[in-house]
Amino acid sequence: MRSTLAECEAAPQAGEAKRCATSLESMVEFAASSLGTRDVHAVAAAGASHAASPAEMYWKIALPTSPMPGAIRDLISPASSVGSASKEDTVGN
């Protein structure tokens, strides 16, 4: 929890747009504001369990050059992030 909050509150890196999303709705609002349009459509993943979640698919479509922050990934799919800490999550902890 501390590392997620620290990542969220940290200043964005050069060229990174950042906002702390506390819900799926706020994540969609951030994506829409980043795109400069409210004309967004939901997508759904079908198939194997290793498929990206709908929110991850949307993020990749809406913001293809911006990686999804770990805090948002954890918010939309906390079970999938267990045991999958990134290098940034473990440095200095």
From TrEMBL:
Regions crossing the membrane: none
Superkingdom of this protein's organism: Eukaryota
Keyword Glycoprotein listed: no
Residue span(s) of domain BURP: 1-93
Alphabetized UniProt keyword annotations: Signal
Name by which UniProt lists this protein: BURP domain-containing protein
Lineage, opening ranks: Eukaryota, Viridiplantae, Streptophyta, Embryophyta, Tracheophyta
